Amino acid sequence: MKRPKQKFLFISMILLLLVGLMSGCNTNKANQGSDTEAKDGKINLRIAWWGSQDRHDKTQAAIKLFEEKNPDIKVTAEFTGWDGYWEKLATAAAGKNLPDVIQMDYARMVEYVDRDLLLDLAPYVDSGVINLDDVGDSYINGGYYNDKLVSVNIGTNSPAIAYDPAMFEEAGVDPSALDPGYTWEDYIDISKKLKEGLGDNKYGIGGVYTGLLYFNYYLRQHGKQLYNEDGTGLGYDDDQLAIDYYTYWNNLLEDGIAAPPKITTTIKGLEDELIVQEKAPTIWFHSNQVVALQESAGRDLKLALFPTLPGGEEGLYLKPGQFFSVSTQAKQPEAAAKWIDFVTNDLEANEILAAERGVPISSKVRDHLKPLLGHAAQAMFEYIELVEKHSSDLYPPEPVGAGEITALIDRITEELNYGRITPEEAAKKFRAEATTILAKNK
């Protein structure tokens, strides 16, 4: 008579174990932020971004303020570094579980729109949930694609040269040599004098700048673009432009003016940059990086425009450093729109964020914030104002495959810098492989 009872107890224990396991799975799911309502009945808003630890800390502090001002909303923060961010989003998209708010990059925007993953935010602007009254067109235009506002700029920047005035003076070179109007040839002369004045184990330039960002600037000065209008091919026909550009940097490398690859390949972050280590007085980068760069260097740095092309066009532009977008899989789109309005317009929030992502797009926020910031951030604000006077329209959003093109140019640059190929071979190789990649968009 005992055997049936034991069997019953055994089955009961198995059932209880299964229930426990299922409850554990549900708990894990809630911890991942997939529930649309928090346990206390509040709206659960998921916000994803990439960045440094400094960005994480600032954003989470702003989130705390957002929750205080919106007591019905609880935010689940989902952040990581750049590495792995897009893979994580791709996995979430495949599972139809994208966060409500996504930090978006200009190079990825078209891909996400083509996959119908970004919501049109125009209705929220029209209804007043997102207020863009104090935002100029040049600050917001980059977020439009196919006449839809799919992304809102959360920090404007532009390509820039950072330079160390103290190293210029040490080398006997007047920093005013980088005032607007100097040419590509002038830059060679300036860099040679810097190298000569600084002596051994130091360089006139922190490296060679043959990446897509810088090559596209050169093309724009010649009235061309990197990609054609529909993203199915390159936007320039004459490979002499690429040959000339590669040759320019290759000569600086061979002459020992630019730091060689055996030096630059050891750079893993801003704290390793040669300008930080006082081994080179200039670096080409994005203007919003100057705050972190100066913190790493521990001394004042200045920003300058890129070289001009005599008789050429303006190659610079105002570019969204990052966007915030709302995913079409969002479970709380209106709360997501409120967050975007908050980071765009709230003065307290922007005091916390401290323009780390770039210059705020609201003129009221810029006016409020500028006097409160340190020297580096103020220099960034002033630089963006300068670029507005020396820029042209932003290039179209990068096509699908832009990530592959970036990897391609990085690979070709490495071959060129190590002397494995010539500038002519580099230009030919880039066209052949880039054309194959972009032809997939036809």
From TrEMBL:
Pfam families: SBP_bac_1. InterPro entries: Bact_solute-bd_prot1, SBP. Coiled coil: none annotated. PANTHER family: ABC TRANSPORTER SUBSTRATE-BINDING PROTEIN YESO-RELATED (PTHR43649:SF11), ARABINOSE-BINDING PROTEIN-RELATED (PTHR43649). The keyword Signal applies. Keywords: Signal. Transmembrane segments: none annotated. Residues 1-30 form the signal peptide. It comes from Lederbergia citrea. This is Sugar ABC transporter substrate-binding protein.
